[in-house]
Amino acid sequence: MGWAARIEAATPAYRDRTVDALRAVAILGVVSGHWLVSALVSDPYRPAALHGASPLAYAPGLAPVTWLFQTLSLFFFAGGYAAARSVEGRDRRSWLGSRVSRAARPVLVLLAVWLPALWLLSATGAPRSTRHVVWSLVSHPLWFLLVYLVLTALTPVLRAAVLRGGAWSVLPPVAVVALTDAAHGHGLPGWLATATVPVAWAAPYLLGVALAEGRLPRRAAAVLLPLGMAGGAALVSLAGYPASAVGVPGAARSNLDPPSLFTLALGAAQLGAFLLLRPWLARLLRRPAAWAPVAALNLAAMTLYCWHQSALLLVTFAGLLVGGLPGLLDAPTGDWPAHRLPWLPVFALVLAGLCSLFHRFEARAAGRRGG
């Protein structure tokens, strides 16, 4: 049997392949988006001194591109679906422990590699700015996992809310985000911004639970897609929200810190498009050749997420040995975005190598929880 046929034969009949495809799109969007906006710039007078920059700070016209690569709502939607499907009939303590283990093992391995590496950088006299940007790139994506674990722990409560109110259960989180946005211009306390993060991401998570419980019909696309598109456009053009779906260095406000109504509107549009395309996607994924890469991405999703910025760092460090190259180590101005694109396959190749080394830890955790 070929690779695709083996994966097809091992896939349970009850698995919803469309949600797995959505998760695969989400992981590709986040990884590619980070690689496109995470510029590491070398000081021309001290090449080993690196600092972070973003092409969005120099080319605001690129903001619409971020709407394609900011796919965190899809992550939380798929997470809510998977959690709701797996919790039913299970002991909640053992269920939560297995899901925490699945998420925690890859993170612990990442820290076991990078904490000594950072100590080594410090011991060898690496510039402070370099150590700061390395730690930022490695650690910043992990906030998602903390929020994900909070929502996972709350799944029984969120599921009960969906069983009572259906998809309308998203309204309280949306209301909280709206109130937080309204308070933004009056000095938003740091604790409130932090508390709003899991509340905001609970909205797509609840919609994922609703799909799992049969409470999110395809006709909901007729609400989510136009409402998300029109709402996002109105927030940017009339209410002064940033057009970028991700943070921009130096900007007064970010749509992700904490997630804003624009972020929820973008997620609603993306999920509406998914519901609209879901029947076609289900037919496509019946083909083993289409399903196999989706399944492979899902099996390694946590490893890919944890290590994708490490791949960027390793390629960047290698670039220091040969000097500045277009799209690597230079300031993200002018044609930098076009020069960056050819580096994406290089990053992907290094990430594939890292996954071959470290995916075993995620696979062991999956095996212990039964897949």
Automatic annotation (TrEMBL):
One GO MF term: acyltransferase activity, transferring groups other than amino-acyl groups
Cell cycle as UniProt keyword: no
Domain of life: Bacteria
Record InterPro entries: Acyl_transf_3_dom
UniProt KW keywords: Acyltransferase, Membrane, Transferase, Transmembrane, Transmembrane helix
Membrane-spanning parts: 21-41, 61-83, 103-121, 133-154, 161-179, 191-211, 223-241, 261-281, 311-329, 341-359
Residues covered by the Acyltransferase domain: 19-354
Protein name, UniProt field: Acyltransferase-like protein
Organism: Actinoallomurus bryophytorum
